[in-house]
Amino acid sequence: MKEGPDIAQIGALIGDPARANMLTALMGGKALTATELAAAGGITLQTASTHLAKLEAGRLLAQRKQGRHRYFTLADDAVGKLLESIMGFAAGRGHLRHQPGPKEPALRKARICYDHLAGDYGVRMLDSLVARGAIDAVGDGLALTAKGEDTFKCIGINVADLKTSRRPLCRSCLDWSERRAHLAGSLGKALLASFFDKGWARRTAGSRSVIFSPEGERRFLALFPVETPVAA
Amino acid sequence: MKEGPDIAQIGALIGDPARANMLTALMGGKALTATELAAAGGITLQTASTHLAKLEAGRLLAQRKQGRHRYFTLADDAVGKLLESIMGFAAGRGHLRHQPGPKEPALRKARICYDHLAGDYGVRMLDSLVARGAIDAVGDGLALTAKGEDTFKCIGINVADLKTSRRPLCRSCLDWSERRAHLAGSLGKALLASFFDKGWARRTAGSRSVIFSPEGERRFLALFPVETPVAA
DNA sequence: TCCATACTTCGACCGTAGCCGAAGCATCTT
DNA sequence: AAGATGCTTCGGCTACGGTCGAAGTATGGA
Predict the structure, then answer these.
(1) What is the per-residue pLDDT across B194-223, written as a single tens digit (0 to 9) for each?
(2) Residue B59: which residues within 8 A CB-CB, separation 6 or more?
(3) Contact B2/A at CB under 8 A
(4) Which CATH architecture has domain A7-75?
(5) B155 at the A interface (CB within 8 A)?
(6) pLDDT in the model for residue A142
(7) Is B89–A82 a contact, with Cβ atoms under 8 angstroms apart?
(8) Is A17 on the interface with B (CB under 8 A)?
(9) B116 - beta bridge partners?
(10) Residue B51 and which of A147, A193, B12, B175 are 20 to 30 A apart at CA?
């Protein structure tokens, strides 16, 4: 009760199951309405409304009104990073949700982590980029190499544009399912966006999982090869 | 309610003020008894006992019996890292505890972050090590250089011993007060321990702050110089 | 053996926070 | 203007979890 920042406040904010579910739903990166979030939390609209007000007051969520809808998103990527890190911790301790639903495998394979690709494919992508020297990995830090700048130009991503943002270009994010790093930051965001643009993959309706088309999957795997074809 | 790890459980665990205070107290790195933790949490012994049981069941805490005392510590350094990252997040949002006590300045200057040095001095130390090429920093990742291995040998730290541990040698840890990285990992731990051994600094009784002796402070600042003498 | 210390368990109390029905605003549609 | 949709606020209910007093268990020392 005397020193340092108050971790209890945000712990309590995240500690309610309904709120945790809503936050998890928002990890999909899409802005969601209060009604959608109520469904995600398994509660009525009224209850969701009070929860959302609390989350907003705690600055975990941001909202913008659009017509008669109110769209909520995570306040910024620091929130996403925090949530993913807590997820990683929870997964490591075996604090899994009670029923590992049928969607679990798809989720482990490829999912959205706030705004970038996570799961097996996310980890594979980063591994491949490091192996080809496009990204430099030291400890758990990542940096774009000169060679990498060319690589991404070929893929159709203009790194120069991304550099204008104050947000870091490369950032490692611990993957809770793989327990290894995947690529976050504005570059990670741009890569995922490009997969959607090219039609290689699409988001799913009510989940964070990412579904690749057969053609998209082929292209993706060809673009990001790994030395040992299966596992490490 | 369907996918991914359960962040609500650990959120709730951290979300109670009494528990949060006890966890914060344990960030000091020392093992504490149930009685001491009850005081830290501002609750009676009985209440503390139930809280501690919950924290242990949630695998945030480990205990070992020693005589009629029961000593509690954070379960492992993953817990410490999680807590510090939540603190960093909370500090960034201005979720500070209500009264910024008189100890705050000392805490910002130098404190223990589970088992290594944090605060202004912790950040300064890492900056200096990077500047002299002992540690390589890429993004937010850290790695020991060959040159650094010699440097630490001069300081009296045998890096080879540390390498035997499975724990990473260098790890960056975000400092909640400075909002920049300081050095964690077994090397960070060994450095702090050496400061205590040499009598340069000592822990304080009920707080995480680290107090340098005048002589120790002089030596520390000489050992870890920074280009711009004051601030950046 | 007996008492003191350290801690846990039990039982009961209480407050708070979550929850929903109903009513109230606000915004869009026709 | 009237109705529909999206969301918030109010009021009251309920239950869960935190809290402590009191009693119970283990360890250490005299």
Answers:
(1) 999 999 999 887 778 899 999 999 999 999
(2) A93, B75
(3) yes
(4) Orthogonal Bundle (1.10)
(5) no
(6) 86
(7) yes
(8) yes
(9) B113
(10) B175
Tally of CB atoms within 10 A around A58:
18
Among B27, B226, B216, B39, smallest CA distance to B111 is for: B27
Of A183, A104, A176, A180, nearest in space to A151 by CA: A183
Window A:180-199, CB contacts with B under 8 Å: none
Q: Which residue has the higher pLDDT, A77 or A219?
A: A219
**C-alpha closest to that of B31 among B64, B78, B53, B55:** B64
Reported pTM: 0.80
Handedness of CA A218, A224, A230, B3 (dihedral sign): negative
% of residues, chain B, pLDDT over 70: 91
Alpha helices in chain B (DSSP H): 7-15, 17-26, 34-41, 45-57, 77-92, 104-109, 120-131, 146-155, 159-163, 185-197, 214-223
Domain assignments of chain A as residue spans, ordered by start: 7-75, 100-223
Is the ipTM value over 0.90, yes or no?
Answer: no
CA A69 to C1' C27, in angstroms, rounded, equals 9
Quick: pLDDT tens for A145-196. 999 999 999 988 988 888 888 788 888 887 877 767 889 889 999 999 999 9
CA dist list (Å): B168 to A80, A109, B77, B186: 25, 27, 11, 6
More confidently predicted of B164 and B212: B212
Check B138 against A140: CB less than 8 A apart.
no
Q: In B 58-87, which Cβ lie closer than 7 Å to strand D?
A: 65, 67-68
